[in-house]
Design goal:
Elements lengths: L6 E2 L8 H7 L21 H11 L25 H5 L5 H4 L3 H36 L3 H29 L1 E2 L4 H12 L3 H22 L7 H30 L3 H20 L4 H6 L4 H9 L2 H9 L4 H8 L7 H7 L12 H7 L2
Antiparallel strand pairs: 1-2
Helix pairs in contact: 2-6, 2-9, 5-6, 5-7, 5-8, 6-9, 7-8, 8-9, 8-10, 9-14, 9-16
Bound molecules: fe (ii) ion (2 copies).
The site of one fe (ii) ion has 5 residues, from helix 5 and helix 6.
Length: 350
């Protein structure tokens, strides 16, 4: 039991300096930056997204009502929706008391929220790299607004976890590996593909589905705010890469398509709350196998790709070589998906 190092937070106390010392980690990156001396801001889609980003800034402290009541120990199991229902055929879960089941739900939610937080930190670091290495002036300005957006996302999830949920899991190894790859690759376009299209695209799917598995209204409002920003980030990636990828050689395109596929593969098959299963002494292989057998759970795993696959297609990375691989991954049905989401439409038409 208890392999994962979970941080517990007492009411209203943020991490101390000592905690930060203990968990910081160094990486080195061969970043290739560029100045751009042409300050002509073309009236293109990137500039319009930049203007939209400035108008849509929000404040974690002001625009969310942190005073609304929420007692996680009084939540009902049914309010955890799919997260509860999908375990109802699983013996180790069924044999628990209602109180213990609620504890499982708290831990599962803590795990997901923690991965959101760590992913947002990754996005913050990548976005700041994009300011340096994006080749055009408009993109540098846009990346600056994204960097600030990501800072607010980190702030929001961190505050939520520390003051409301009070439990934090470490980053899961596969997400960390993917972030490392994106942060340390010299090629700026791989950063765009990995972060803007794949991680943020998947996050959009996960953010949209998450409120159905959590009863706290404040969390729903917080996620809704973040979704607006993420829609813009993905749109930025699409507009920018669309032009760029057209100019690459066939070989270069295939390399990027394969990279995109590998990243999706990791997120499709290796993104499980193993650390939580471990905490309850559940056999990892058995639990994952059980989960994969649940239709609703498979549907969710597929659902989160609904933005990623059309994005890859649009920028020209759904090549003949990788297409069959995405088919085997079971996510190709999204390739022509057109989202009705208002935020998405607004970002797309900027
Ligand atoms: Fe974000
Ligand atoms: Fe983002």
């Amino acid at each position: 039991m208890g392999m994962a190092k979970v941080h517990d937070f007492k009411s209203g106390i943020y991490l101390t300096n000592e905690d930060f010392h203990e968990i910081k980690e160094i990486f080195h990156t061969p970043l290739t930056g560029s100045y751009n001396w042409d300050y002509t801001a073309a009236d293109d889609k990137i500039n319009r997204l930049y203007q939209l980003a400035k108008k849509r800034q929000w404040d974690v402290e002001i625009d969310l009502d942190w005073s609304q009541k929420w007692d996680k120990d009084k939540a009902r199991l049914e309010d955890y929706g799919l997260a509860h229902q999908s375990y109802l055929g699983y013996e180790p879960y069924l044999s628990l008391s209602d109180e213990e089941k609620l504890n499982v739900q708290h831990k599962l939610a803590a795990w997901s929220l923690s991965q959101f937080l760590h992913g947002e930190q990754g996005a913050l670091l990548v976005a700041s790299q994009l300011c340096s290495c994006a080749p055009t002036y408009n993109a540098k300005l846009y990346a600056a607004t994204q960097t600030y957006d990501e800072a607010r996302h980190v702030e929001a999830f961190n505050k939520y976890i520390q003051t409301r949920h009070k439990e934090m899991y470490p980053i899961t190894p596969d997400l960390k590996m993917l972030l490392n790859k994106i942060l340390t690759d010299e090629r700026w376009d791989l950063k765009f593909i990995g972060m803007q299209l794949i991680i943020e695209g998947l996050a959009l799917g996960a953010f949209k589905a998450f409120p159905q598995t959590h009863p706290d209204k404040l969390l729903h409002q917080l996620i809704e705010k973040i979704i607006q920003d993420e829609s813009r980030h993905v749109t930025f990636g699409i507009h920018y890469l669309e032009q760029h990828i057209k100019r690459l050689s066939e070989d270069e395109v295939e390399q990027r398509a394969e990279f995109a596929y590998q990243a999706c593969l990791i997120m499709r098959h290796r993104f499980h709350p193993n650390e939580v299963f471990d905490d309850f002494g559940w056999d990892l292989e058995e639990t994952i196998k059980y989960n994969d057998g649940i239709k609703a759970r498979r549907d969710f795993q597929t659902f989160i790709f609904q933005r990623v696959i059309p994005s890859l297609k649009r920028v020209g990375l759904l090549t003949e070589t990788v297409r069959p691989k995405f088919e085997r991954l079971g996510v190709i049905q999204w390739e022509d998906f057109d989202d009705e989401d208002v935020n998405w439409k607004e970002a797309q038409s900027a």
